[in-house]
């Protein structure tokens, strides 16, 4: 397995840390030590640690669960002294492999809560970061406020000095910091969530307000929550995948990691207690993060959803396989070129046509084995987030709408729950009611247009547009996806 001693004799094709891992100390505490974190924040920190006077920015990882896979992960990280390998593979198959030494320790919060709290309160900790998934912030979609009604949150509120949730741990850690006179720090979301800093502030200050209004005010004044846009495809790695990665690298790594060669991080420069020299390792600092978020959502996420819907109907498992169909490739390219880019304001210094070409290259990377089913899950909610601005811009602007209408038909065929051969597909729509699912599965094309997927632009659906959606669904049924695509 990987250890500090094994760094002395790495295979020739594997790069080791460009710094003395024994001299690295922890300045960042990260909740949610998953693959994306290790390939994204971990990647940038690994490069920062190689710069002069940056060795105090190592990371201590924290897991919020124990037992089963969580225990195994903890044991393996500790056995390897926090080391892990990252294999980056480009679309042309070229690979780079390196061993990362940024992870200094790994704690399991349920088993060692006081150690975690002491670390959060330690003056040396300057940043608390997290990857807890887009839905992990516990915000009520109706009110926009933090939900205190969740049972785990209620338990923390009843005994705030012995927390179990990330909100409880961070707020109790901040309370101890204030008590010790150590000042605030930065709470930094690394989740793929629009306005993730604003959402984080609402969540943590909302929890703190339920504990102590004065503490909430102190956090609001002394803790920063920068907004950020993160991007990198980092697939899950099976046991078989781990074996293949180790065979490729020549390492015996218990936690090998795979990612594409593309990476991006755009963030506001709002750090309460200092930050690593991220600007020297490729991180983009801007006060216009929302412009980058818009571009990503309207181009990357929207086209991803089109590919996933088409892939599910075509019974293809991987994104690169779907994009490998020439007619699908041409259709997605046309949607981006003719419907999205003309109605999207580019972020500063970004060429949207080059960005489009980069996206299509990334999606074609077979080494990522990106699962269509993963992307197609909760398509109803994703369509409202990813498609709304483009759909409204096209329909309100009186632009040519053939492709956009077809996308709506394609989505409804996905929600039907059967591929183009009539075979059942694994549909994951957690927010549709049983009645709505029955409508989606039926052949009542008119009724299905009333499903929530179109709620964000329903006011623009004229009788004529509805007839066009029905017509395109009939074409998909008659000819199949490839023959019916308007290319």
Automatic annotation (TrEMBL):
<dbReference type="InterPro" id="IPR013118">
    <property type="entry name" value="Mannitol_DH_C"/>
</dbReference>
<dbReference type="InterPro" id="IPR013131">
    <property type="entry name" value="Mannitol_DH_N"/>
</dbReference>
<dbReference type="InterPro" id="IPR008927">
    <property type="entry name" value="6-PGluconate_DH-like_C_sf"/>
</dbReference>
<dbReference type="Pfam" id="PF08125">
    <property type="entry name" value="Mannitol_dh_C"/>
</dbReference>
<feature type="domain" description="Mannitol dehydrogenase N-terminal">
    <location>
        <begin position="27"/>
        <end position="279"/>
    </location>
</feature>
<dbReference type="Pfam" id="PF01232">
    <property type="entry name" value="Mannitol_dh"/>
</dbReference>
<dbReference type="InterPro" id="IPR013328">
    <property type="entry name" value="6PGD_dom2"/>
</dbReference>
<keyword id="KW-0520">NAD</keyword>
<dbReference type="InterPro" id="IPR023027">
    <property type="entry name" value="Mannitol_DH_CS"/>
</dbReference>
<keyword id="KW-0560">Oxidoreductase</keyword>
<feature type="domain" description="Mannitol dehydrogenase C-terminal">
    <location>
        <begin position="289"/>
        <end position="444"/>
    </location>
</feature>
<dbReference type="InterPro" id="IPR036291">
    <property type="entry name" value="NAD(P)-bd_dom_sf"/>
</dbReference>
<dbReference type="InterPro" id="IPR050988">
    <property type="entry name" value="Mannitol_DH/Oxidoreductase"/>
</dbReference>
<dbReference type="InterPro" id="IPR000669">
    <property type="entry name" value="Mannitol_DH"/>
</dbReference>
<protein>
    <submittedName>
        <fullName>Mannitol dehydrogenase family protein</fullName>
    </submittedName>
</protein>
